[in-house]
Each structure stands twice: as C-alpha cells, then as structure tokens.
Design goal:
- The structure holds 2 protein chains of 2 kinds.
- Chain A is mostly helical.
- Chain A is about 55% helix and about 5% strand.
- The radius of gyration of chain A is 22 Å and the shape is globular.
- Helix content of chain B is about 70%, strand content about 0%.
- Chain B has helices at about 25-35, 40-50, 55-65, 70-80, 85-100, 105-135, 140-155, 165-185, 190-200, 210-225, 250-265, 270-285, 290-295, 305-320, 320-330, 340-355, 360-370, 380-395, 400-420, 425-440, 445-455, 460-475, 480-490, 500-510, 515-535, 550-560, 565-580, 595-615, 620-640, 640-655, 660-670, 680-690, 695-710, 710-725; strands at about 15-20, 25.
- In chain B, strands 1-2 form a two-stranded antiparallel ribbon.
- In chain B, α28 (about 595-615) packs antiparallel against α29.
- The radius of gyration of chain B is 39 Å and the shape is elongated.
- Chains A and B meet through β1, β2, α8, α11 and α12 of A and β1, α3, α6, α8 and α9 of B.
- β3 of chain A pairs parallel with β1 (about 15-20) of chain B.
- Chain B: This is Protein NPG1.
Chain lengths: ~325, ~750
C-alpha cells in the first residue's frame, strides 16, 4: 500500500526534476537519502522564482506530505530547512510565496493535530523533593507545589493562511516537528539548516571563533550572510537552538562537516544575540559556543574510564 | 581507541609478568608461544607454571593478549571458555549463601572465594566485550557487556554488598555499567541506550561518585541533544511521592541539577560542561531564575567573579528584573573588575536606555562600549552606537533646559544614523529612527523609516504597523492610516487585534465618526469577553497582545466626554473602576446622583490612596489613580464645577508632579480664574512644555495666558506652535509604542 504511494511520489518527482533519477528499489528511502535527488530538489528550491503558488515542486511536497505515509512525510520534513530558509529570507522581497506557505502550513497543522493543540510544558524539578534519581529528606511539605512550570511551546491555533505576525510561530512549530524527527534526518539536511542559521543571523561569528586570540581566518560568506538576516523572535529562535544543539552535540557518529557547520552557526547566532542584546539568547548560544570549544579542547585528552588499565603484573 | 599507546609499556625496562598463587612467569615467554599461534601450549605452560585450572589460565591469557593490543587473539582465547556455563555454575552457590546465615564464618570465606570466581568470569566477559568493541563488532560487544550486568544481577540478587566487595569485581562492574550505554549509542540503538542509562542509574551497582556522575552527565547530554524522545521511565522505577520526569528536558535538567548538588556537597570535581549544559537547557525553557539560583550557590573560586556577575545579570535581565541585573553589572564593570567587557557594557546600556533616570549612566556605558568595539569585536560598533542613541534620546526627556534637550536629541539622532551605516539591515534600527523622527515631528522621514521597518520585518511585528498608522495620523492622513490598521488586522489573528482596534477607534474619532468608533469599541469589548473566557493559565499570550480592558473603558469614557454624554462617561468609568479592587464597594451606589458620588469619592481618595498604597504596586496604582482622577476632573470641568475639578487636579499633581495632562489642565483652569492667577498658569504650562514640548494644548493655553496678559506677539507664537503641532498631532503619543 505505502509502497505504491512511494512509487507514485517517486515518479511524479521524476517528472519535476531535470535529470530523471533511475528507478529505485526502495523509493521512499531514495527520496530521503539519495544525495543526487536531494541536491536537485535543493537547487530547485533555491531557484530565484521558486515557492510561488504554481510551483510544481511545492505542490509535490504538499501532496507528498498529505499522503499521510510517515516515510514520505519524512521526505518533506527533510527539506524543511531549505524551505524555511529560502522562505524567511525572501519574505521581505514581496514575492509570491504561496507554494512555500502551503507546505509550511501543512507541517504546522500536522503538528497541531498530533499535539491536539496543546502546549508543551516542562516542570523544572526542585531538588528538595526526592526524585527517581536522588533522595531528599525534605520536610514532606507537599507533593508538587514547588515545581516551576515552563511553557516551551504555547498552545496551537489552527491557521488557514500565513498571517505575517504569525509567520515566525508557524515556521517555529514546523521546526519543532523537524526536531522531533531529527534522528531520521540525513546529515545533508542538517548541514543546510546550519547554513541557514548563519544566513538568518546576518552575522559572521568568525571573529568569535576563539576567545583566546587564535587568529583563524575563515572564509567569510559575506554575500549570503548579509542578505538573509531576518528578525529572530524567541518563538523562532528557541526551536532553532534546539536543533542546533543536536547538530553540535547530538550525533555520536561525528560528522566533521556537520560539526563545523554547527560551530559556525552557533558563533553566528551568538554574535547576533549580542547585537540584539537578548539575554536569554546570549545565555543559550554562549553555552553552545563554549561547549563546542570544550569539545575541541578535550578531544585529545579524554580519559576512557571503561578501559582496563595497563599493568606490568597481570594477576588473577 | 585513542589510548592504544597504553599497551606498549615495555620501554621502561621493567619486565612484565604473570602472577598467580604466589608464583610468577615472564610474560614474554607466554607471548612467544601465543605468537606462534599456539594457544593450547601457552595455556598449559601457564597451568603448570602457576598451578591454575583451565578457566583461570584462559582468563589470564586473554587479559595478556588484550593488554598487548592483540584483541583478535584475546577473542580467540576467550572463545575457548564457556563463560555462560561458568556463570550458571556461580549462581546457585550464592543463593545457598542467603540460606546459610547461621554458619557465618564458613559462608564469609565462601563469599570471598565465589566473588573471586565471579570476578574472574565477569572480567573475562567484559574484556571480550571491549575486544569486540575495538574490532567494531559493536552489537556483539553490547550484548556481551549486557550479559556482564545480567550476570551480576543474577549472582548478587540482593545487590552488590558494598562492605565486602572484591575491588576488582567492583571495577569490572562499574566499567561494564559505564560502557553499555556508550556501546548502544555507537550501535545507533538509541532506545537501548536510554534503557542502559536508566538501568545504570536506577539499580544498585555500588558505583563511586565520579563514575556515577560521568554516567549522569552523559545521559543528560544524550537526553538534551540526541533528539530521541526517551519517554518517561518505567513504572517499576517510580517510588511513591518522588518526582518522575516526564520528558527529555525534565530528565536532563533533573540530572544536571543533581550533578550541581553533588559538586556543592564536595562529592565530585567541578565540571564546567555541566554548568554550560544546564545554562543551555534552562535558558531554552526561559527559566533563568533557577539558573541564577544555581550560579549563586557556586562557591567562590570556580568562576571569575565578574563572569559570574555577568551571567547572573543576563539571568535576571531575561526575567525582567533589570534592577538586579544592573546592580550586578555595575559591580562587574567597576574599574577594578572588568570595566571594558563589551557584553556587560551593552547590556547595562540597554537596561539604562529604558529608564530616563538611568539614561545618563547608560550614555557612559555606551561610549565605553563604542571605544572598546575594536578588532574582532568591531562588528559591535553599530550596537554601541544604537545604544548610545537610545540613551541620549531617553536622557533628553529629563533634561533641564531646552538647549540641553535639543542638543541631546540631535546627538541621539546622529548616533542612530551612525549606527545604520554599520548595520544597514538591522530592522530594529529602522524602528528606533522612525520613533525618534516622529517625536521630533519630522514626519516624512519618520514615515520612510516606518515603511522600511515593515518591509524589513515582513510586517511581522505589530508595533511596526502601529508606528506607521500613528505617523500617518500625525500627517492627518486618517483614511490612509485606517488602510494601514485594516492591513494590520488582516495580518493578525483575532486574539492579537486589540491594540490595532483601539487605534482604529481613535482614528474614527479623529475623523469625527463617533458612532463608528463606538462600534469598534463594542467589538473590542466582545474580544475582551472572549479572551477572558478562553484563556486558561497555560495560554501564554504576551502582555502586549492582551486587550487592556481598562484602556478600552478609558477610551470610551474619553469618547463620551467629547460628546458631552456625561452619564455614559460615568458608566464607563464605573466599569473601569470595577477592574480595580479598591474602589469596588463604591459601585454599589449605583443609581445615585453620579455627581455626588464623584465628589464623595474625591474627598475620600486620600483614604483609599493609603489602602491602595499597601496592596498594589506603586506603578500600577498610579496609573489607575490618574485615570480615575483625570476622568473625574474632566467630568467636573464639563459640568462647570471648576473648583471641584481644580481640587482633583491639584491632588493628582501632588501625587505625580510631572504628569503632563494634569499640569496642562490645571494651567488652563488657572488661566480662567482671572488676572491674578495668570502667572501661576504660565509657570505650570511652561513646566508642562519642558516635560513634553510637543503638547499642543499646553502651547494653546500658554498662548491664551500671553494674550490675556497683553503679550500679543508671544501669544501669536504660541498659537502658531499649537496650530503647527495640531497639524502634526498623532492620535496617540508616539512614545506609547516605543
């Protein structure tokens, strides 16, 4: 059943792409992981006139997402960094972007439905109460009254169109969906995301590369970074930072290219937070930058505590 | 593995040996046999030389191979032992133990022997797992490692006895506990990794503090960054009344907080990464007050104190406690600390720029920041200039003389214009410039920046629409302003439309369409009702978005007073007062002569003032007070009760001497009281103009005073100013949006 859906999606995409990819045994997986297909789709999404209401690729993305096949939905989510990136950077140019908006709204409403519109909250623990990981001889004052409830994503209203004041929220929620699927996302998608973070920040954070005066000069992509600067309200920046945290510190199979891209993005966003003098963002991005630096510093002298130490005398 | 160098330890000249049962053999001899590929021979020479049994000899050989880096060889050796059968053999002997409590001495020796045997077998399995890991056979490695833990749980059903445990056994167990989740992570089995972490932390393994801390930290990092939703821990691990995290963030924060506490208790070493991860997690949840508490608890000496003050300042500023933040920044910017720290300077300048009494201090911070924005920090020059401009502009509002004010204002504009050469894509700058130019009534420039701001933000920020509408209204282009408010309404959802609707109502009034305005207000009130019904505590709507019901009634009251519908004014005021607790009881006097009520209220206000002073915050109270007072004054005046009105105005001024609308109204009243009062009126009006130079009413009444005093030329100037200002008067003060 889903195989035929995937095949249909594969075929209809082939008719949109310029270089028709060869037919595939496992179309859903090829759509998600084939670098040739992704690079062609990405190129089309980056095209100066992409994203209009009659854009075939956007229609394909929309239809594919609406197929409600989880594997195929992943394919659309995979291209979210590119869609959101191009869309947000292009909003100010007053171009028709209904195609992008349709895809983003589809992702938004998917997340709204699956969350039943509920907000996401975090009960920040108070250590004076015992927890599963620690004991506490707290005067059993009362159960959970001292918890600090933090809303990390407010409740969701259905949206039929992208109103400009809700744009950041809609994209932010789509990014929350991306984050929830991030273990399945290919590295290429995450790298694209990091590159757009840099563009959105509008700051090349390279001057911040090394607090200790290391003068590493990195190529400055001035062209991109100046053009793409967008307003970064917290409702957008917060999911961005969660994804970035994953790119920087999450994957155990360290991909060097992704790690570099994530480092650059963190530095850019840190510089941007300083420009905005946004305390919350300075704290979050600053800690990412320092953690990246600690990771680099301790790479060589990490002690492996699971190693059996070498001894001259081997005894029973 | 990075540490393969550990195996090549021959260089120090000491001879490596194998020892057991009091005898020793040179490792090299055995190795020679192994190198020939002759495991059996090596094994039998060990058994003879050290009088060992088969399993012991194999375990020793495996360890030897492993230590010299020959993991394939080690695997071959271990494969020769049936380790799982050995575990089977170990089990019953221990369950016997619990049954034979009476013969204590015998059972103790029995335990140590069995522990030794267990240690031997478990270490062999563990080394097998490590060898497999080194060969990249990760799933097999994880399964072997897991079998170590399973075996421990089966052998020691009551948990490991911490008093009498064999050191080497404990080491093996600790290593296996630590290794297992890492192996699952390397395999990519994230859910197995989560299970392994929780097993490590929730079961009794008798781990030492550092080992446990390492596992807790790694698990916290995994939860924070892996993107894998771990789900809540199983019910089995939950204890009645204890806190159970229900998602990744909660569990990670809990673990990090526990690590911080362990550090405070001196149980573990300081790990800066823990603090950074906690900072990241808590700032993502906007719970920086908890972060501040953590920072305050850290002992001196861990952080550079200026770093800690700066971090604390960020925490407090993020939750809006700017006073606390500024005090900390003052400490860290002290000349003996780090007076040139850019982040601290900019944050301090920003906080100061929001308060006209601090603005002068902010100017200093911004200037220092500017001179320090060099080299790699040159990109912050624009920010420094922007902050300088904002502080100068704010400071201008409290300047003592006209000359000083205009100097500060032009300097402020110069700074902001300078900032834009550094940051020509910073939308916030467009907004700042738009507001500044609008306040100076340079409306065409203001209009340009307002439009630029809307372009740069894609119309996503409400205050941009408001600014544009206000500037257009100041240019008396009301219908265009209305087009803007309509566009803004299109771009907002119903819940956020309050402020725009309020503007729209005012635009209707300005166009002399009071009925339309009343209609808009009615819609607004319906919105208020709907919001009140549908917002639970978790519906977080920022304060700006919420319709301020009080303001709605206030606006309606003003509208009716403009129409001289005094009864309606009274009703609106009554509604407004309903929102404030301290005057609630007076509302029961409905139906009485409103005039009487008001007089009664005014005479009693001082009393209420005392009560209210205690229960409400000063700022909120004053706002209420002035609305109430201002409106009742207008009513008195409207009814021709000049003296009552005057009394109310003066009372109001005693509370807040720089409240401009009252000053102007008192001035105007005095100007009607005859020639003796004219100098008082004049000084009041001049004072009002010092505070708010663009108040057209003040200019107008001042003109009247001059005229009555016979200074016709001065009067003409004032009237001209008033009329020019009237032509550029926005429907709401520009500073209301900044």
């Amino acid at each position: 059943m889903s195989d035929t859906k995937a095949e249909t999606a594969y075929k209809s995409l082939s008719s949109i792409l310029t270089n028709t990819p060869p037919s595939s045994q496992n179309p859903a997986s090829s759509l998600l992981y084939d670098p040739e297909i992704s690079s062609q789709v990405s190129a089309l999404l980056r095209h100066p006139n992409s994203g209009a209401g009659d854009d075939n690729l956007c229609r394909w993305l929309y239809d594919t997402f609406q197929s409600s096949d989880p594997q195929l939905q992943l394919v659309v989510v995979r291209f979210l960094p590119m869609i959101a990136g191009v869309y947000l950077s292009r909003v100010t140019l007053r171009k028709p972007l209904a195609g992008f908006e349709a895809v983003l709204l589809a992702l938004y409403s998917h997340e709204t439905t699956s969350r039943k519109g509920q907000s996401l909250t975090v009960n920040v623990p108070d250590l004076s109460h015992p927890s599963i990981y620690h004991e506490s001889k707290a005067p059993s004052k009362n159960n959970a009254t001292d918890l600090n409830l933090a809303v990390i994503s407010p409740s969701l209203e259905p949206h039929g169109t992208v109103r400009s004041t809700r744009r950041a929220r809609i994209v932010g929620v789509a990014l929350e969906l991306y984050y929830s699927k991030i273990p399945q996302m290919p590295v290429g998608s995450k790298i694209e995301f990091c590159e757009f973070c840099q563009a959105w920040a509008g700051q090349d954070g390279d001057m911040r590369k090394d607090g200790n005066g290391g003068d590493e000069v990195i190529n400055q992509k001035e062209g991109i970074s100046k053009e793409g600067r967008i307003p970064l309200p917290w409702e957008l920046l917060q999911p961005v930072l969660r994804i970035l945290g994953h790119c920087l510190l999450g994957s155990n199979k360290k991909n060097k290219e992704l790690y570099e891209a994530a480092c650059c993005a963190s530095r850019s966003l840190y510089a941007r937070s300083l420009h905005d003098i946004n305390p919350n963002a300075i704290l979050a991005t600053g800690s990412l930058v320092r953690l990246a630096k600690m990771g680099l510093d301790s790479q060589n002298d990490q002690v492996d505590h699971t190693q059996v130490p070498w001894t001259r005398v081997i005894s029973l | 593995m990075a540490d393969s160098g550990e195996y090549e330890g021959d260089d120090d000249g000491s001879v490596r040996e194998l020892c057991a049962n009091g005898a020793c053999m040179k490792a090299a001899e055995v190795e020679a046999k192994l190198d020939e590929g002759n495991i059996q021979e090596a094994e039998s020479s060990l058994r003879e030389g050290l009088s060992l049994n088969f399993e012991e000899a194999r375990a020793l050989l495996g360890r030897l191979e492993y230590q010299r880096g020959n993991v394939e060889g080690a695997l071959r050796v271990f494969d020769g032992i049936d380790l799982h059968a050995a575990i089977q053999r170990l089990q019953p002997s221990f369950s016997e133990k619990s049954a034979s409590k009476k013969c204590r001495s015998r059972s103790d020796s029995h335990v140590s022997v069995s522990q030794h045997a267990a240690s031997l077998v478990l270490e062999a399995i563990y080394l097998k797992a490590k060898s497999l890991q080194k060969l990249g056979r990760l799933t097999e490695a994880a399964n072997e490692c897991k079998s170590v833990l399973d075996a421990v749980e089966r052998i020691f059903q009551q948990g490991i006895p911490d008093a009498q445990v064999d050191n080497r056994l404990q080491e093996t167990v600790s290593r296996a506990v630590e290794l297992l989740p890492e192996l699952w992570k390397q395999v990519g089995c994230d859910h197995d990794a989560v299970a392994a972490y929780r097993r490590a932390l929730l079961s009794q393994w008798n781990l030492d503090n550092e080992c446990c801390a390492r596992i807790q930290k790694r698990f916290a990092v995994f939860l924070l960054h892996s993107g894998v939703e771990a789900g809540p821990p199983s019910l089995g691990s939950q204890v009645e009344g204890s806190y159970v995290p229900k998602n990744n963030l909660e569990e990670a924060i809990l673990l990090l907080l526990i690590l911080m506490k362990k550090y405070h208790l001196g149980k573990i070493k300081w790990d800066p990464a823990v603090m950074e991860h906690l900072t990241y997690a808590l700032s993502l949840c906007s719970q920086t007050s908890i972060l501040a508490k953590q920072l305050e608890e850290i002992m001196p000496g861990v952080f550079l104190r200026s770093d800690r003050w700066n971090a604390l300042a960020l925490c407090y500023s993020a939750i809006g406690q700017n006073d606390a933040a500024l005090n900390l920044l003052r400490k860290s910017l002290h000349k003996h600390e780090r007076p040139n720290d850019l982040m601290a300077l900019l944050l301090a300048a920003k906080i100061c720029s929001e308060d006209c009494h601090l603005a002068a201090e902010g100017i200093q911070y911004a200037r220092t920041a500017l001179s320090n924005a060099q080299g790699k920090d040159e990109h912050l020059k624009g920010v420094g200039l922007r902050m300088l401009g904002l502080c100068l502009g704010r400071h201008a509002k409290v300047s003592s003389s006209d000359y000083e004010r205009s100097r500060l204002q032009s300097e402020a504009l110069k700074s902001l214009d300078g900032a834009i050469t550094f940051e020509n894509n910073n939308a916030d700058l467009f907004f700042d410039l738009g507001v500044r130019y609008a306040e100076q009534r340079n409306l065409s420039t203001a209009l340009r920046y307002a439009k630029q701001y809307i372009d740069a933000t894609g119309g996503s920020v409400l205050k941009g629409w408001k600014l544009l509408a206000l500037v257009l209204s100041a240019q008396q282009r009301f219908s265009e302003a209305e087009v803007v408010t309509d566009a803004a309404l299109d771009e907002t959802t119903k819940w956020e439309q309050g402020p725009i609707l309020r503007l729209k109502a005012k635009l209707k009034i300005a166009q002399a369409l009071p009925m339309d305005a009343i209609e808009t207000y009615r819609y607004l009130l319906a919105l208020v009702q709907a919001q009140r019904k549908s917002f639970g505590p978790l519906r977080s709507l920022s304060q700006d978005d919420k319709v301020n019901e009080f303001q709605v009634w206030h606006g309606l009251a003003n509208l009716y007073s403009g129409l001289s519908h005094w009864k309606d004014v009274a009703i609106c005021m009554g509604k407004a007062r309903e929102l404030k607790a301290y005057s609630a009881e007076m509302l029961h006097t409905e139906g009485k002569n409103w005039n009487f009520i008001l007089t009664y209220e005014i005479s009693n206000l001082n009393l209420h003032l005392l009560h209210a002073w205690k229960v409400t915050s000063l700022a909120r109270f004053l706002k209420t007070f002035f609305f109430f007072f201002g409106s009742s004054c207008v009513m008195h005046e409207g009814c021709g009760q000049t003296h009552e009105a005057l009394r109310a105005y003066i009372n109001a001024l005693l509370i807040e001497p720089s409240y401009v609308p009252c000053k102007v109204l008192v001035g105007s009243l005095f100007s009607k009281l005859g020639p003796k009062a004219l100098p008082v009126a004049r000084s009041l009006l001049s004072d009002a103009l010092r505070i708010e130079p663009t108040n057209r009413k003040a200019w107008y009444y001042l003109g009247l005073v001059h005229k009555d005093d016979g200074r016709i030329a001065d009067a003409a100037d004032c009237f001209q100013a008033a009329s020019m200002l009237e032509e550029s008067d926005p429907i709401e003060s520009f500073s209301s949006i900044a």
